[in-house]
Amino acid sequence: MHTLEQLHAFIAVFEQKSYSAAGRKLNKDRTTIRELVKSYEDNLGFSLFEIQGRKAHPTPYATELVKQAYLVLRQNSKLTEYSKSIYTTPKSIINIGYDADFPFEFIAELERRLHGKYPHLTVHWRKTTRLKGVPLIAKGTLDFAILPTRNRVEPEYPLQFTLLGYISYGLYVGKHSRLANKAVFTLEDGQFETQYLSENAWEADGIIKEFSSQTRQVSSNRLIVHLLQNDGWAILPNDYANDEVNKVKLTKLESNILANDVRIGFGYFHQIGQEQSSTIQHIKKWCDELAKTFFQSAE
To answer: How distant, in Å, are the alpha carbons of 104, 133, 167, 208, 217 from that of 261?
Structure first.
């Protein structure tokens, strides 16, 4: 048998490659870490680390076992969060986070349904990013959030998430920019012309990244549209940018520096166990229904 304390020690040594460093990470002394790992090895019947100098190098057994150890600790974390949620008092206020690239029409319809079903519930809509939003959900500051999924099977924290669908992005310049007449936006254009990158993309660590030597972070897509009237280029959500194209403000360009119409997944996130709340149940149900209208497929 193993204990959770043994697994924490094993993983810490595996990651830090040192008993001393693992002790500092877990706020335990080196001897305690070594004893926990040794007792775990005794239970297993094989060695997990080979000591070379001051380094603890994982054996092939450890490399294979650590995958399951991570899974056990993650499941334990989920169980802890679920247990806490059982006796949670129903809330009169709910905070919902959203990424600014997500369709506002979707959010407006979700608000309409919430107000109709729960007229006395106070709902706060909090604009956030993936980087800031996920930890806020884990802490309970946000009760629910719609954010980019980063195409990961699991978020960084013990949370539940469901993929809603994909938002497509394209490359845009100002209608009267000197770049607007280019047949193809080249690698050199991308590297040396000013790139405007939204705060969302900057902090999302996703597909859309800083590419130009003259990249400038901008707080909103609306401001980017105005800045593009001077010069430069940007990757914007097609649904939003198409409205600006129709207003004769933007021009969409073909590009050989990235796949045209890049797709980024978006989904909803909440703490484990929150699905027991009738409010969260309805929000999830409505999100799933609206996704069928706003997105072609969540596959």
So the answer is: 20, 25, 9, 11, 21
Task: Extract the tokens encoding 210.
Answer: 């800083």
Residue 177 near residue 101 (C-beta atoms within 8 A): no
148 DSSP β-pair partners: 266
What is the amino acid identity at position 155?
Answer: P
Dist. CA 203–CA 54, nearest whole Å: 37
Residue 252: CB partners within 8 Å, gap ≥ 6? Answer: 170, 171, 172, 238, 241, 245
Whole-model pTM: value is 0.65
Arithmetic mean of pLDDT, 22-45: 90
pLDDT, one tens digit per residue, over 253-264 is 887 666 567 888
For 3, phi then psi, to 5°, come to: -110, 160
**Whole-number Å distance between alpha carbons of 178 and 149:** 35
pLDDT tens profile 52-71: 888 999 999 989 898 888 88
CA terminus-to-terminus distance, the chain: 40
